[in-house]
Write a structure and sequence with these properties.
GPCR_Rhodpsn, Rhopdopsin 7-helix transmembrane proteins, mainly alpha, receptor, olfactory receptor activity, 11 helices, membrane, 315 residues
């Protein structure tokens, strides 16, 4: 990327050292296998969902179109972070080049912002399905779905460019130890020798938009869904409507709760060690849990899995 190359030329620091999650030698190997196992579950779960949705035509609906893209985002999102994190458990110094650090920061931000907006698109889809079922097919046409998806990735790209462009303009100090297991915004700002006022302003504005807009969209969607559900007279109908939304509510709560706790609190109130634990939820735990949440509570996915597994090879 030209932007990152320009920043590398202007910076006196050519590489960073990632401190990792904790500084406890006895826990490094157990944690390595713990997070390696979680990464395997994340990869298998998300690629499994992508494969199931792609192979089963009855899952080619707006709901599963967005779930397909959520799994796509979670797979790459986790892959940007976890392999480098695992290296910090087995290496004495987990070194990352300046260009590698800024590249990781860009793609981390692109996928995390895209995830926040894909979750809001999924909430809108559930609103259309439950509140306006008779016109659902017209409301969530292929063209509408593609426009929503385009908006998701445009917002992800715009947010990533804004943060990365502000980061590469900084000059970093000789002390290049980043107190984190990845190149994230706040720990990198701690290593800057120049004023970070603009960066902090961009964090509050952009993160406020990237958390605020999806959160408001989701709250409005679910307020209207709840109002619609309460008007359903049959207990079975209410139960079915609630079960349709419950998986999404769990995923949204985990993702936005941990993200807001990390970025929308003043740094003086949140020590970086606590921030690292908080960031584990939206970088490691959420991408791992999403395929489990959406598959274990979803009859369509279970049916698709049975159908796929029962197919004979070369039949």
């Amino acid at each position: 990327m030209p932007l990152i190359r320009m920043g590398a030329e202007n910076s006196s620091v050519t590489e960073f050292i990632l401190a990792g999650l904790i500084n406890q030698p006895r826990l490094q190997i157990p944690l390595f296998f713990l997070f390696l196992g979680s990464y395997v579950v994340t990869v298998v779960g998300n690629l499994g969902l992508i494969t199931l949705i792609g192979l089963n035509s009855h899952l080619h609906t707006p709901m599963y179109f967005f779930l397909f893209n959520l799994s796509f985002i979670d797979f790459f999102y986790s892959t940007v972070i976890t392999p480098k994190m695992l290296m910090s458990f087995v290496l004495r110094k987990n070194i990352i080049s300046y260009a590698g650090c800024m590249t990781q920061l860009f793609f981390f931000l692109f996928f995390v912002i895209s995830e926040s907006f894909i979750l809001s698109a999924m909430a809108y889809d559930r609103y259309a399905a439950i509140c306006n079922p008779l016109v659902y097919t017209a409301t969530m046409s292929l063209q509408v779905c593609l426009l929503l998806l385009l908006g998701v990735y445009v917002m992800g790209f715009a947010g990533a460019v804004a943060h990365t462009a502000c980061m590469v303009r900084l000059t970093f100090c000789a002390n290049n130890l980043v107190n984190h297991y990845m190149c994230d915004i706040l720990p990198l700002l701690e290593r800057s020798c120049t004023s970070t006022y603009v960066n902090e302003l961009v964090v509050f504005v952009v993160v406020g938009i990237d958390i605020g807009v999806p959160t408001v969209t989701i709250f409005i969607s679910y307020a209207l869904i709840l109002s619609s559900i309460l008007r359903i007279h049959s207990t079975k109908g209410r139960s079915k409507a609630f079960s349709t939304c419950s998986s999404h509510i769990i995923a949204v709560s985990l993702f936005f709760g941990s993200g807001a706790f990390m970025y929308l609190k003043p740094s003086s109130l949140l020590p970086m060690n606590q921030g690292k634990v908080s960031s584990l939820f939206y970088t490691i735990v959420v991408p791992m849990l999403n395929p489990l949440i959406y598959s274990l509570r979803n009859k369509d996915i279970k049916v698709a899995l049975k159908k796929t597994l029962s197919k004979k090879p070369f039949s």
